[in-house]
Amino acid sequence: MGQEAFYNSIASYYEYIFPLSNQQVGFVQSEFDSLEEFFFLDVGCSTGQLANRLCQLGALGIGIDLNSSMIERARESHQAADLSFKVMDMMNINSNFTPGYFDALICFGNTLVHLDSVTQIRNFFQQSFQLLKPGGKLLFQILNYQYILGNKIEELPLIDNQYVRFERSYELPTPNQPKVNFKTKLFVKSENLVFENSAPLIPVQKNELEKLLLLAGFPKLHFYGGFDKKPCGDHLPLVVVAEV
C-alpha cells in the first residue's frame, strides 16, 4: 500500500491511535508567555487535534498536512475559532506565507524524518527560520535515532486500546540502505480491518540536527528527552526548540 493510500485509510481511526496529548499542549504553552494573539503553523497536523486545542486556548493557527483525507477529517472534527486547515507540502511553506508571519512553527509526531533527504530537512529549517517573527520558535519532535541505532531497537511500544491495536517495527539501516524501514500494522477491532504499511525514514541524529539548525540561522537551541523537558539521553523521544 502506498503512503497516500495508507493515510487515506487510517484517517478515520487516527485519533484512536494518537489521541490529543496534554503534554504536547503544555509544552507549547510553556515556551511562550501567552497564547493570546499567538499565531502558529502546525506542520503535519494530521487530524488537527493539537491545533484545535491551542486555538481554544486563545491562539490563531493554520494546520497543514500533505494528506487530503487527514485535512478533510480535521475540518469536519475541529472547528475552533481562528483556525484553518490546508492541504500543503511542508517543503512549499515559503511560497504560501510571507516572511516573519508566525510566532511558532510546530512539527510533532516524527513528521520531519519522513522527508526524502537530509537536504530537504535543512531546507525545511531554512524556510522555518524565514517564516518566524523575531523571537519566534520552531518546535519539533522526532524519535531519538542515536538511542535507537545505538541500542538496535527494532520494536516501538505497542498501542493497544478498545478501538485499535497498532504495531510498529523498524528494519535498521545497513551499509547499502542508510534509511530505517518503518513497518506498521493497524488492527481496527470493531470492523475487523487490518492495514499494513512501510515507509523509509531518515534516522537523523541530534548532532546533525544541531548543525543543520545552526546553518539555517537559529542561534538558540534546546534538546529534550520528552515533552516534560527531561534531559536528552536514553529516551525514545527527541524534542527540539530552535529560537530565532
From TrEMBL:
GO molecular function annotations of the record: methyltransferase activity
Entries under InterPro entries matching the protein: Methyltransf_25, SAM-dependent_MTases_sf
Pfam families: Methyltransf_25
Domain Methyltransferase: 41-136
Domain of life: Bacteria
UniProt entry keywords in alphabetical sequence: Methyltransferase, Transferase
One record GO biological process: methylation
Protein name listed in UniProt: Methyltransferase family protein
Organism, as annotated: Mangrovibacterium diazotrophicum
